[in-house]
Design a protein that fits this description.
The chain is globular, with a radius of gyration of 19 Å. It is α+β, with helices and mostly antiparallel strands and 323 residues long. The protein has one domain: Alpha-Beta Complex (Sulfite Oxidase, Chain A, domain 2), CATH 3.90.420.10. Strands 1, 4, 5, 8, 9, 10, 12 and 13 form an eight-stranded mixed beta sheet that branches. A five-stranded mixed beta sheet has the order 3-2-11-6-7. Bound molecules: ligand MTE. Ligand MTE binds next to strand 4.
């Protein structure tokens, strides 16, 4: 298979400009259509399988982690009502409104590519088979906001080890569920769906990198990426791919959604770096979600405050070039 590097692919090859500009309108129409179809076609039993709005089921046996920050977590309400999840709508409040469309049971994760034991694992086995920890991490977005989230999850490296990566596994690619019924934003061709992300293998194997299954001790709500999403606390939010169904170990750097769409704005590495501005805004400071627009902006730290743990991964790299 011919793999094109993201830099070789212009965004206009993927998304017609008028579709991109009208994305809000088109997403609203796609989701309204899906909502009506879902309500029209659902029996009482099927309705019970759609996630109810509000707080989720508690995850048993969650242990605290020494890798948590001691910052005060953002409120549950703010974390679950200010989201980026384009498949569930454009704008920060739309994903929470539309999350009921995302059924998350049954759910299977496929792990394939450069590994000795490719295969599948169900979400119930993920929840019971990997010790679930509370990891309080800061999530930082390129749009200059941040929140502190008490995630529940487990190190990605523990899951990858089960599938036995080979020595040719240099990168890890991730894919979101492709199902326009459950993720109706996928009816609008603003991205080359499904949403895709990637990490270098050493980033994926770092003990700070987790697959999250919950927050505030409970199963993840749909808008936050149920039932399984990536969290890499030293990178910008868009690396945190949601509702993952596939992980592929690869020899080449994988294409990612944002690299394909706007490569000049979002690089593959996406390390939080106050010294490198986004073309349309400064990355030097941020506000905390939940504190309001009048709150004082805080200075952004390199690697989101995790430099002592992760800067060595990038020794010798020009982080202006590999942004
Ligand atoms: N994953 C998918 N599948 N689709 C998306 O639109 N948005 C990303 C990331 N993961 C996104 C996604 C962006 S831009 C951010 S900032 C984080 O999710 C936000 O995560 P949160 O809603 O839990 O705050």
């Amino acid at each position: 298979m011919l793999i094109r590097r993201p830099a070789d692919i212009h965004s206009s090859e993927i998304t017609p400009r008028d579709v991109w500009l009208r994305r809000r309108e088109l997403l609203q129409a796609a989701i309204a259509g899906a909502g009506l179809a879902a309500l029209g076609g659902l029996s009482q039993a099927a309705f019970a399988a759609v996630s109810p709005p509000g707080r989720g089921e508690a995850i048993p046996g969650v242990r605290p982690s020494a890798l948590s920050t001691d910052e005060t977590p953002t409120s549950y309400e703010a974390i679950t009502s200010y989201n980026n999840f384009v498949e569930l709508g454009d704008g920060k409040s739309a994903p929470a409104r539309n999350a009921r469309l995302l059924r998350t049971r049954p759910w299977t994760l496929r792990v394939e590519g450069e590994c000795e034991a490719p295969g599948e694992i169900g979400i119930e086995d993920i929840l019971s088979g990997f010790a679930q920890e509370e990891r309080i991490y800061r999530l930082r977005c390129v749009e200059a906001w941040a929140m502190v989230v008490p995630w529940v999850g487990f190190p990605l490296k523990d899951l990858l080890a089960r599938f036995q990566p080979t020595s040719r596994a240099k990168y890890v690619a991730f894919e979101t569920l492709m199902d326009p019924k459950r993720l109706p934003g996928q009816r609008v061709p603003i991205y080359d769906w499904p949403y895709r992300e990637g990490l270098r293998i050493d980033e994926a194997m770092h003990p700070l990198t987790i697959l999250a299954t919950g927050l505030y001790g409970e199963l993840l709500p749909g808008q936050n990426g149920a039932p399984l999403r990536l969290v890499v606390p030293w990178k910008y939010g868009f690396k945190s791919i949601k509702s993952i169904v596939a992980i592929r170990l690869t020899e080449q750097e994988p294409a990612t959604t944002w690299n394909l769409l706007q490569p000049e704005e979002y690089g593959f590495y996406a390390n939080v770096n106050p010294a490198v501005d986004h073309p349309r805004w400064s990355q030097k400071s941020h506000r905390m979600i939940g504190e309001g627009w009048l709150a004082r902006k805080r200075p952004t730290e390199p690697f989101n405050g995790y430099a002592d743990k992760v800067a060595s991964l990038y020794a010798g790299m020009d982080l202006r070039r590999f942004y």
